Amino acid sequence: MTSDRMTKSNIEPPSLEALLVLTKQAMARTNDVIIERLGSDVPLIPQLAGHLVAAGGKRMRPMLCLAGALMGQRSSGTPDLPEAAHLLAASVEFIHSATLLHDDVIDMSDKRRGRDTANALWGNEASVLVGDFLFARAFQLMVLTGDISVLDMLSTASARITEGEIKQMSLAGEPASPLEDYLEVITNKTAILFAAAAESGCRVGGGTDSECLAMHHYGLSLGRAFQICDDTLDYAATSDGMGKNAGDDFRDGKITMPVILAWRDGSAQERAFWQRTQAEGNINEGDFEEAVAILSYHNAIERSLAAAEQEIDLALKSLSGLDDSALKSALISAALFSVKRSY
Amino acid sequence: MTSDRMTKSNIEPPSLEALLVLTKQAMARTNDVIIERLGSDVPLIPQLAGHLVAAGGKRMRPMLCLAGALMGQRSSGTPDLPEAAHLLAASVEFIHSATLLHDDVIDMSDKRRGRDTANALWGNEASVLVGDFLFARAFQLMVLTGDISVLDMLSTASARITEGEIKQMSLAGEPASPLEDYLEVITNKTAILFAAAAESGCRVGGGTDSECLAMHHYGLSLGRAFQICDDTLDYAATSDGMGKNAGDDFRDGKITMPVILAWRDGSAQERAFWQRTQAEGNINEGDFEEAVAILSYHNAIERSLAAAEQEIDLALKSLSGLDDSALKSALISAALFSVKRSY
Fold first, then answer.
1. CATH number of the domain at A13-340, please?
2. Mean pLDDT confidence for A78-105
3. CATH code assigned to B3-340
4. Domain definitions of chain B by residue range
5. Would you list which residues of chain B are within 8 Å, Cβ to Cβ, of chain A?
């Protein structure tokens, strides 16, 4: 933890509250846009997509987009956020929702955030197609902003998400995967969309180039930290509001940072354990507890969370060139919260 | 068949040849763009997407896009097609390929055009994700054209494709579906992309508004005719170069024009047959031959192909305001060919 970080965390409490308050009004309008734009003459689309969108979740990505727009607006001096900011925030949520629908098909999941998944209720066909619809609709909303630079950012982010997910498939069952590969996966599948949401929001909000770049880097580091924590908590948390059950990744052979660290430092016997459970998928009663014990022995949970904290330090540094404001303080608090919530 | 049509078909032979010749050079460049833009650091992407793209097929959509660009170029007077035309033609092929990958996942197909499908070779997960990648990459290519109007056309087309496919799902097993619903399905899932390909090509080629509109309507009618023929031939053709085996739709309970016509005019006994085979999916040896016999009794094949011919008449009318040229003649021949190939 750098001294810079220590100072800031003394000033700003780790909390999402301030950012939620600052974006509350804008988010209400974005939620209206989301509902309006789910419309289709084909009834299954609003039914299925509405099921997913109503499930809510954290709405992290549209919130980041709106925060970017508010940051941009401060420098442009316009009173209200332009409609483009809401179209873009909705668009980012649609891209994320499309990936969730397709992920659930791929994972054959039947639960997400404690509710039945769309594929469990309507079947894989509908989930694949409605995911495609949401993706296309996202691009229609971006076109409505009239700003081709945001189409550039978000089409690139969309391609990178799929590259991240495909690379993740190739790491599955490979506990000896290099840490760099894992970092590439989480950057692509999560962080790039966080970055694009924050940067493109700032752009349509009227932000300067340096503000947009700051928001990009903030989103990128926050996204990496967020994903490292999410993956790590799969071995640490009891099933909570996190959106998945502890041990899911272990049972799926999904290779994340704690396992890579423990493999790297592991004995031959431990490696045999990872080989059997992750590569061969031969998992018996008590193996998850054994995995947690091995990770604990190597401090793999703490070291992973420390890596997330390093990313948060980078996120805070990204903001250092921006003028002080309530919004900047809120972004700092939110970043600190994203790792603090783990403990 | 209108007299106008009779005259034209006396002048222009039904053939794809002239259009193939006129677009040959441009298509070679587009094929290079397709190969270049399939690149990714994740090896599975060019492998899987390359398998699909190498399978080729008719490349109808990029050819229409290039024909549109050549039409536009005639009025703008520039010597070579702009790179944007090739980016766009590749983009249209990527959108189409993405829908094929997802269709094969949904249909659980293991053969397309006589080759193993991607999902049979690499699994559903990879097919879903590489489909998503191709879709995102298509939008990246459109962004490179710098023309937001083509993003508008193609994002709308993409959304309409999924709406068409979802609506098609809801018609499955319902032989009593109204003909209007079928026409809506084929317009959305096929014709809108043909229209957008031709129109957007004309736009980046430098065409006038009236040329772009003519190409839009030509593509729309051609797309409808193409899909009606494709669906009808499933009951008429022996397994040929058509890309599917005769009887596939019958076995899948996919409801198309001939069945809707035969149901509408059918006896109680015939309706019971359609009910058993299409709604209940209870298909026995000899039922496909029985279906063909019922369709034949009601002239349902001929009447469906006549509906396709009417669409071709509309396609030819769309071009009537354009100056005569070798390209216009080639587009007429290609349209006539798209129904003639059926006999």
1. 1.10.600.10
2. 91
3. 1.10.600.10
4. 3-340
5. 40-42, 44-45, 98-99, 102, 105-106, 124-126, 128-133, 135-137, 139-140, 142-143, 146, 148, 151-152, 155-156, 158-159, 161-163, 165-167, 169-170
